[in-house]
Specification:
The complex is a heterodimer of chains A (about 280) and B (about 425). The longest helix of chain A has 28 residues. By secondary structure, chain A is mostly helical. In chain A, about 70% of the residues lie in helices and about 0% in strands. Chain A has twelve helices and one strand, in the order βαααααααααααα. Chain A has one domain. Chain B is α+β, with helices and mostly antiparallel strands and about 425 residues long. Chain B folds into two domains: about 200 residues, P-loop containing nucleotide triphosphate hydrolases (Rossmann fold, 3-Layer(aba) Sandwich), CATH 3.40.50; about 130 residues, Coagulation Factor XIII, Chain A, domain 1 (Distorted Sandwich), CATH 2.70.50.60. In chain B, about 25% of the residues lie in helices and about 35% in strands. In chain B, helix 3 crosses helix 5 and helix 4 packs across helix 5. The relative contact order of chain B is 0.11. The chains are: A mainly alpha (about 280), B alpha+beta (about 425). Chains A and B meet through strand 1, helix 2, helix 5 and helix 12 of A and helix 2, strand 4 and helix 3 of B. Strand 1 of chain A pairs antiparallel with strand 4 of chain B, so a sheet runs across the interface.
Chain lengths: ~280, ~425
């Protein structure tokens, strides 16, 4: 029988980092399941929170931006539907970003007592956000029925954009959670960023409102590309995608994923000492 | 089967800690503001350079482990002892990959499971059943392994009735039992255990000890950190003594334990004790841990070096044994007819004392020709180890009672 030989040395980078991660996939499943089953314990309406929160935000945005400010919708799409098509990726992004950034701190006792690839912790939290997303997706279907809005073939591409949303939150999430171990300041920054982001991302309004010359600059916010992509999938030709902006957002998401993962791996070994 | 599974070479672990400078003088608002501004500047600089924030004004490097080397063979059960802060837990943390060493290198063959604290990763909101799976997965077991062992774990923890209750409703005893049960059923070639026996009631501790023994007998390699010398002596055959991060002694368990005990507690007094007569002095007095095996009702040996300038007759040496709560338990006296002039090594042997395991200290006195020439309190202290063999019935507050003496009985049948 051949046995794995493990060598521990200062500054040694794990050769089989990724295969090690794969070996711990069951832990990933079980941590995700733990977060999920604990999420709505001891709440009265439980899982209904996952529906209520985005729905109420959508109502407020529709009234304020659509009725009061009288901003235009995309093509002929109902304003509420357009807002909700953006609410979906935005709440997926914001919940997974905030959960991932706090994940290491919340699991301090695990980090300081047991070894496992640390990357599992922040990635597992994203599953919870994803399940919330799936639940609120039901509202979208409900809205589509209500407005008698039939989706086109674009809808089939939606999974790709969901994946992009997850990556968009995972990149900064990993970086921030690693920094959070050292500097707790980031715990206070994230709620602020999320709140801020809701207004600078085209959630309550269409990104076509932005003047043409600023659109590329506006797409430096990766969520602009993601939200446009979602609207394109759900609303079809009513909401044409702005490709240069989308590609820019895509590049930025990829950059953040690279940054997040590489920073995380670099700092991972000192977590137990600093947390 | 003598291959090495853990090889540590010059292992070191460094921590940087900060000290707050003592600022005795009167501080003004201006000082505080200046200091805060300075701190902010330094911290921002640290952040940009990616250094951790260390609270305090001066920094110090502390080596929690220094130059530790050892080899552990397959199937060996090795104890690690040392005072608090000697580096025992740091060593286990390095071996279990929780933290990276700062120097040296470790080579490990086989799967390592570490049991550094029971109940790590238990979630209060989840039920006992769910927590078994969660905790098992965190410890590195696969779902299938947990499933196979599930009934065994539940039976060991004695929580069958409460399996579907959230563990936050558990009593602390139940909680700990469940946690230990999961950990004890880990399937790993190398097991690292830290102080888990310090939990639960006496009966459960006994059960844990039994389980550990079973594990050790199964040919698995076990590294066992504990303050319980009895458990160490019972479970291990070899022991490593750590002191200030350095490996002081690596030898068979009895030798290491007695070295540790004689170093650790104030079991010897090497300064001269003067008596009221200046031709008679005590050079040193010590408790001899090496002479006989330590344990319940094993003889206690005291070594005494006396210096005598003239002949003395009718020397009586007496000592009172005091338990950990200060009660005087017994007086023991030894009449010595004649000792030669010069330095003499006396060994006092107290047999059949029936003292239960615990910590004791002694008051010491000398009488010559009916006159007390020395009386000294708390001369030295010693420990009687609990080997868990001889006195299984009396489990609680052992060292708070006097002697432990088994009792016989006669039953008469009365019509």
């Amino acid at each position: 029988m051949t046995e794995d030989i493990l060598i521990l040395e200062p500054g040694r980078t794990e050769k089989n980092y990724w295969s090690d991660l794969w070996r711990y996939r069951e832990l990933f499943v079980i941590l995700a399941w733990r977060d999920l089953s604990v999420r709505y314990k001891q709440t009265i309406i439980g899982i209904a929170w996952a529906i209520l929160r985005p729905f109420l935000t959508m109502l407020v945005f529709t009234v304020i931006f659509g009725r009061v400010a009288k901003l235009p919708s995309d093509g002929n799409a109902p304003y509420a539907l357009m807002v909700f098509a953006a609410m979906l990726p935005w709440s997926l992004f914001s919940t997974s970003l905030s959960e991932a950034s706090n994940s290491l701190i919340v699991n301090t006792n695990l980090i300081s007592k047991v070894y496992f690839p640390r990357l599992i912790v922040p990635t597992a939290t994203i599953v919870t956000a994803f399940v919330d997303f799936l639940i609120s997706f039901v509202i979208l279907l409900g809205l589509m029925v209500y407005y008698q809005f039939a989706p086109g073939w674009h809808m089939l591409l939606l999974p790709l954009f969901i994946l992009l949303t997850l990556f968009a939150s995972l990149g900064p999430g990993l970086w921030i959670t690693a920094l959070n171990v050292k500097y707790r300041d980031f715990r206070y920054i994230i709620p602020f960023v999320v709140q801020f982001g809701l207004y600078i991302s085209p959630v309550g309004f269409s990104s076509s409102v932005i003047p043409e010359k600023w659109r590329l600059t506006y797409s430096l916010n990766p969520m602009v590309g993601v939200i446009d992509g979602f609207r394109w999938c759900i609303l079809g030709s009513d909401s044409p995608i702005y490709w240069p902006g989308f590609i820019l957002s895509f590049v930025i998401v990829t950059f953040f994923i690279w940054l997040g993962v590489s920073r995380f791996i670099k700092m991972e070994k000192t977590f137990a000492d600093l947390i | 089967m003598s291959d090495i599974v853990i090889k540590a070479e010059n292992l070191g672990k460094k921590y940087t800690i900060g000290h707050q400078a003592e600022n005795g003088r009167y501080t003004t608002l201006r000082d505080v503001l200046m200091q805060s501004a300075g701190n902010l500047w330094h911290k921002t600089k640290d952040l940009i350079q990616g250094k951790p924030i260390i609270q305090g004004d001066t920094m110090e490097e502390v080596w929690a482990l220094k130059d530790v080397s050892f080899d552990i063979r397959r199937g060996e059960v090795v104890g690690i002892i040392g005072r608090n802060g000697a580096g025992k837990s740091t060593l286990l943390k390095v071996l279990s990959r929780i933290t990276e060493p700062s120097a040296g290198r470790v080579t490990i063959k086989g799967r390592v499971a570490s049991l550094l604290e029971v109940g790590t990763g238990f979630h209060p909101e989840l039920t006992g059943r769910e927590n078994i799976y969660l905790n098992g997965a965190i410890m590195g077991m696969t779902r299938q392994e947990i499933k196979d062992k599930f009934d065994e774990i539940v039976a060991f923890a004695e929580v069958e009735k409460f399996l579907d209750t959230p563990v936050k409703r558990y009593s602390s005893g139940m909680y700990v039992r469940l946690a230990f049960a999961v950990a004890a059923h880990l399937e790993a070639e190398i097991l690292l255990v830290d102080e888990v026996l310090a939990v639960g009631d006496a009966q459960f501790q006994k059960k844990c000890l039994g389980k550990m023994e079973e594990v050790a007998k199964n040919g698995r390699t076990v590294l066992f950190v504990s303050h319980n010398m009895g458990a160490i002596q019972k479970l291990t055959s070899r022991c490593i003594l750590l002191d200030n991060g350095e490996s002081l002694l690596d030898s068979n368990v009895n030798k290491v334990v007695s070295t540790y005990l004689s170093k650790n507690i104030n079991s010897s007094r090497n300064e001269t004790l003067d008596t009221s007569q200046n031709d008679f002095t005590i050079k040193s007095i010590s408790f001899n841990y090496e002479a006989v095996q330590n344990g319940f009702n094993k003889p206690l040996n005291f070594d005494l070096f006396v210096n005598l300038e003239n002949h003395k007759y009718n020397l009586t040496i007496g000592f009172i044994i005091i338990n950990s709560i200060g009660a005087k338990l017994m007086l023991s006296e030894c009449d010595i007819d004649e000792i030669p002039v010069g330095v003499t090594h006396l060994t006092l042997i107290l047999e059949d004392h029936h003292l239960p395991p615990g910590n004791y200290s002694i008051n010491f006195g000398i009488v010559i020709n009916g006159i007390q020439i020395l009386h000294k309190e708390n001369v030295l202290s010693f420990e009687i180890l609990d080997l868990g063999i001889d006195n299984p019935r009396l489990t609680q507050k052992r060292d708070k009672v006097g002697a432990y003496i088994p009792c016989k009985y006669i039953a008469h049948k009365i019509k």
